[in-house]
Design brief:
The protein has about 180 residues and is α+β, with helices and mostly antiparallel strands. The protein contains six helices and four strands, in the order E-E-H-H-E-H-H-E-H-H. Strand 1 (about 15) and strand 2 form a beta hairpin. The model is unreliable at about 5-10 and about 70-75 (pLDDT under 50).
């Protein structure tokens, strides 16, 4: 069995742009053990696999915002990465969670292949858990239905027993005296 990959601190690399959590192409390339140009080339060669909800190019304004954000939060690594784009004509690509997963499937590095296998195993495991949960939920629904039926039956029995549980009526008192 291959040695498990160490999990990098990916959360420190994640930024929020256009209301989505994204990661820079250069950071994703590092995670997958390839060059940034290899990631960008994979995106260009497979445009159908990278719709705008998976991957998009930053605008200059977004880059400026990211630069000021990263400087203010003192994430020097991210600030240095974005600083090189300051005067460049090429704006960096950013990948959403789905795009990062898709990149793992199209890149041909050992690390990307390991990530793809890891992701597939995670989804299979999740599906198995959901199937188990679905079976349990189905069984609970059957038990609930049975309990409701039993509750109705017990309710009917209770109503039939109520008159029997009442004390018998007192016999009429005998009248004293002459009866006419």
């Amino acid at each position: 069995m291959p040695k498990p990959m160490p999990v990098p601190d990916v959360l420190s690399l994640v930024l929020t742009i256009r209301g989505q959590r994204v990661i820079l192409d250069s950071e994703l390339a590092k995670l997958y053990g390839v060059t940034t140009s290899a990631v960008n080339q994979a995106v260009k060669r497979n445009p159908d696999r990278f719709p705008s909800v998976f991957c998009f190019q930053l605008t200059r304004e977004e880059l400026r915002q990211m630069l000021s954000q990263s400087v203010m939060t003192s994430t020097q690594g991210a600030a240095n990465k974005m600083f090189k784009y300051r005067r460049s004509d090429h704006m960096p690509l950013v990948f959403t969670e789905y795009g990062a997963l898709m990149a793992a499937t199209v890149l041909n590095s050992t690390r990307a292949v390991q990530m793809s296998v890891f992701i597939i195993r995670a989804f299979v495991s999740m599906r198995q858990e959901l199937m188990t949960s679905a079976t349990i939920l189905k069984r609970l629904a059957e038990i609930d239905k049975t309990l409701i039926e039993h509750d109705d039956a017990l309710h009917a029995i209770w109503h039939q027993l109520q008159p029997l549980l009442q004390p018998p009526p007192e016999p009429p008192k005998r009248r004293i005296g002459f009866l006419s």
